[in-house]
Amino acid sequence: MKHMLDARKLIASAEACLGWPYASPGNNDARGIDCSGLFVKAFRDQGGSIAHGSNTIYRKYCTEKGKLTDVSQLKPGMAVFRWNANTPEKFSDGLGDFQHIGLVTGVNPLRIVHASSAAGCVTTDTKPGKWAYWGWLKDVAKPDEETEKGGETAVMPATTAVVRAESGSTVNLRTRASASAPLVERIPVGTVVVILSSGTKWSKIKHGSRTGYIMTEFLAPEHSGEKTAEEKAAEEPSLEERVSQLEQRVSLLEAH
After folding, report:
1. Same structural domain, 87 and 163
2. Which of 57, 43, 34 is nearest to 135 (CA)?
3. Number of domains in the chain
């Protein structure tokens, strides 16, 4: 029986690439990746393989596919495509150009992860926008199929982290994974936040009712044992304590 890929693991692989730089054709890793390379990487993480190229993926790797007319058609783990009417020369089917591909990682709210040349990195969309077609990849098991086979559909517990910084008292939370993106807020160092997804450069987090992106280097696992700047400062003795310690040392010297 052919090994089927887990849609949830596929989603996790794509989410972990957030913030990776865009490069075409790229290396399919943190050095640079393009839209279909994101799928090559996610399949490879589970020991699978898929062609590089969004047109080939739509034509040869989708068991179910169709025109996207309503977001209710979308399911987590599904591929979506941007399209124009000009069929590439290498294809003679007249279907048009499926020029860009993304992965649906959530539907309520909508979340599409894709490597974008416009954004310059792996990023997310939260609206259908220009996504025109959908497709279910042939080697990916649908979540309901996994359940029928006895697979678990457990909800993963939230992961928390502490905001840290070597200097400064706050860290910027931005609307997308880019240092030039608009600022959502400045989060004080030492604040505990919820990690929604994590990449090598950027992580998506939730702070109170707000969500956004923060550079991964400014996050430390809450129970990692690594102390924040505030915790380190709290451990430092006060001036009065240092004076008292010095007086005790002098007294010991005098006694001898």
Report:
1. no
2. 57
3. 2
Helix or strand (DSSP H, E) at 57: helix 54-60
If asked whether residues 16 and 113 sit together in one domain, one would say yes
Of the residues 148, 172, 198, the one at which a domain ends: 148
Task: Output the six-digit token pair for 245.
Answer: 């310690």
pTM, two decimal places: 0.60
Rounded CA gap, 98 and 116, in Å? Answer: 15
Question: Worst-scoring range by mean pLDDT, 106-115, 117-126, 211-220, 242-251?
Answer: 242-251
**What are the tens digits of pLDDT across the range 45-85?**
999 999 999 999 999 999 999 999 999 999 999 999 999 99
Nearest to 14, CA basis, from 23, 5, 3, 35? 35
Listing DSSP states for 117-175 in one string gives: TTTTEEEEESS-TTEEEEEEETTEE-HHHHHHTT---PPPPPEEEEE--SSSSEEEEES
Q: Exposed, middle or buried: residue 106 (CB in 10 Å: 0-12, 13-18, 19+)?
A: middle
Average pLDDT of the chain to the nearest whole number? 83
Q: What are 174-211's pLDDT values in tens digits?
A: 988 888 888 889 999 999 888 877 777 888 888 877 88
What are the structure tokens assigned to 152, written together?
């678990």
- Note down the domain range covering 228: 159-235
User: 136 and 172 share a domain?
Assistant: no
